[in-house]
Amino acid sequence: MEENRPMDDDLQRIREERLRELEAGLLGDTGRVVEISDTTFQDTMKKHPFLVIDVWAEWCGPCRMVAPVIENLARDFAGRVTFGKCNVDLNPAIAASFSITAIPTLLFFANGMLIDRVVGALPEEAMRSRVMRAFETG
């Protein structure tokens, strides 16, 4: 009977992987942070009615502190609010169109309209509160 244990473990692992793949296919991008660029910005806005964009740069220390918070919020608000990241150095048009002069900056959009902005690195609970207030979601 002990001989079957490794095969049983392998079968369970395969089942779990397949379930994750199926869930990922059904859920699409929900729960994941999407990359946003100058070229994908408009389509992303149309596809996601509630969107928070983290405008950041590689060299920005506070931006690196915000990144895991954005990932947590993306998971927590999956299916309700989409979170994206936009590298300001690679996407100057977005930065210019929203007059971004300091990073990190979070831009909050509802149905394509800018409804809020946060400049600087806030603690996770403060960001969570801003998201909930902006989109009236719990």
Structure write-up:
- It contains five helices and five strands; from the N terminus they run αβαβαβαββα.
- A hairpin with a 2-residue loop joins strand 4 and strand 5.
- About 4% of the residues have low confidence.
- It is of the alpha/beta class and 138 residues long.
- It starts with a helix and ends with a helix.
Topology overview:
Blueprint: H1 5-27, E1 34-35, H2 41-47, E2 50-56, H3 61-76, E3 82-87, H4 92-97, E4 105-110, E5 113-119, H5 124-135
Parallel strand pairs: 1-3, 2-3
Antiparallel strand pairs: 2-4, 4-5
Salient structural properties:
Glutaredoxin; 138 residues; alpha/beta; 2 domains; 5-stranded mixed sheet
Q: Decide which structural class fits the backbone.
A: alpha/beta
| CATH classification, class level of the largest domain | Alpha Beta
Rough shape?
elongated
Strand order of the largest sheet: 1-3-2-4-5
Count of DSSP H/I helices: 5
CATH 4th-level superfamily of the largest domain: Glutaredoxin
